[in-house]
Amino acid sequence: MGSISDQSVYLLSRDGAETERLNNQHRFLVEISGNILHPSIPAKNITAVADLGTGTGIWLEDIANCLPNKSVYLHGFDISPAQYPSGSEIHRPGRNPIPLSVHDALHPFPVEHHARYDLVHIRLLTAGLKYADYATVLANARDLLKPNGYLQWEEVDHTAFCTDSIPENPAITKLRQSVIEAMLKLGLWPFAPQHVHHQLAAGGFRDIRRATYTTIDREGMRAISQKWVAGVMRALVPASMVVTGEARDERQAKEVVERN
Ligand SMILES: C[S@@+](CC[C@H](N)C(=O)[O-])C[C@H]1O[C@@H](n2cnc3c(N)ncnc32)[C@H](O)[C@@H]1O
């Protein structure tokens, strides 16, 4: 179930099914982008990495295996520990565990983390960030970076869940529209990639690269991408339909999603 309070909004749930979805989604995203770290970031220079809104910590666990420095320091932060492994750390045989802290990225990070990281990673905060929050998260992320450090921020555009050659099922279009409508109603921002790009430029970051990943013309990825979209819809739509008034409660909304 999504959570909406005066202080924060989060359209997704944090239960076991959502934890599994996030981990599967990670594999899909790595496959579609072809990398876990953008090739413009020199992996060999990375000695410390922070992941904000880390969720289950899956990205951190994976990047550890892709960096040449095997003693790289890794740290995850999230506003909620609900999807953390037990003990709030990622256990790794023969290596130091990866610590996971609870921290709202809308608040400044503790000073011991300032200027500590060569790389800060952020991925998929759209279900929890309002339009003005992006600049705040960016400013707080910047505090974490060493001089000349790197930020990699990956977001999804909620208007882009479609493929070129298969006409979208009108029922899916409708569900997608419910999500966009609910996000706008809650002050969230469904067109995040463009906004992140603008904020980076406005925030004085240098050498900004924008990469767009798509399954268009990638026949082999069609089935897996459709499965991913269905999973995203199942995760986002129930809370959205309650926000838009299209469903009484999430149970009724789930029935509508499953019918489609
Ligand atoms: C869709 S999940 C993505 C998790 C992870 N980044 C990934 O890509 O697998 C979004 C995560 O952002 C977290 N989140 C939302 N708002 C946040 C905030 N203000 N500060 C820190 N984390 C936040 C949520 O709790 C959730 O774990």
From TrEMBL:
Residues 49-149 form the Methyltransferase domain. InterPro entries: Methyltransf_25 (IPR041698), SAM-dependent_MTases_sf (IPR029063). CDD domains: AdoMet_MTases. It comes from the Eukaryota. Signal peptide: none annotated. It holds the Pfam family Methyltransf_25. This is Methyltransferase domain-containing protein.
